[in-house]
Amino acid sequence: MIGMLGRKIGMTQILDHVGEVVPVTVIQTGPVTVTRIRTQAKEGYNAIQIGFEDVKEKHATNSHFKAFEKLQLTPKRHLKEFRLPPNQKLEDYKVGQEMNAELFSEGEFVDVQGKTKGKGFQGGIRRWGMKGGPETHGSMYHRRPGSNGCTTFPGRTWRGHHHPGHMGDDTNTVQNLLIVKVMKEDNAILVRGAVPGARNALLVIQKSFKRDKIDLTKLKQRVGAEDKKDAKKAPAKKPAPKK
Fold first, then answer.
1. CA 191-193-198 angle, 5° bins
2. CA neighbor of 111 nearest in space, from 44, 201, 209
3. Per-residue pLDDT reduced to its tens digit, 114-150
4. Which domains, from first to last, does the chain contain?
5. What's the CA gap between 39 and 227, in Å, rounded?
6. pTM of the shown model
């Protein structure tokens, strides 16, 4: 799996393979279309460009529409390029090839990138968690940012000082999210935990660089075996004395 574009549908909860209630995020994965293949000989590196969501001709620029017309493909709204890992070959991909949720499997870990919710202009207390001033006795100093700089040296505000300003709407990545379930018929996956962004936000899903795939079916057996070991270690209860 090189990568996938998708949409955040929302959050819910399900029972996992162990029988525990876990929060999951529903992500629509594609379908995406391979729109361009970059080679080492021509561009200097190997990569695959994919497109997500069709766009009408009237909503696309002339150059954008003409480029897809040459490829005999429908113009795409979002484009994303992924470098090929060493274990994959360019011959495995062709222009016009479609990919969807079948690329994923249960037990895999993925990294999900998206834009966080925009909060607008916020003060220092909400943006940086500042304590604030006294609330009583006429202090007149409740939620103000306070002193900004030094008087003698350097006579200016230090760079990086926490001030009120724009909050949110930043690109953020959540790593090592476990795929609990793959819904091929609905072209969606369920990942354990939360992902950045509001509902219907655009997401970039990639295979985790830090964790390998696990077998969820063996997870239940392993937990059951640990419970048996704990039961054996526990001391037997003595019968209550007869009265």
1. 90
2. 209
3. 999 999 999 999 999 999 889 899 988 899 888 887 7
4. 4-118+169-233 (2.40.30.10), 119-168 (no CATH)
5. 53
6. 0.80
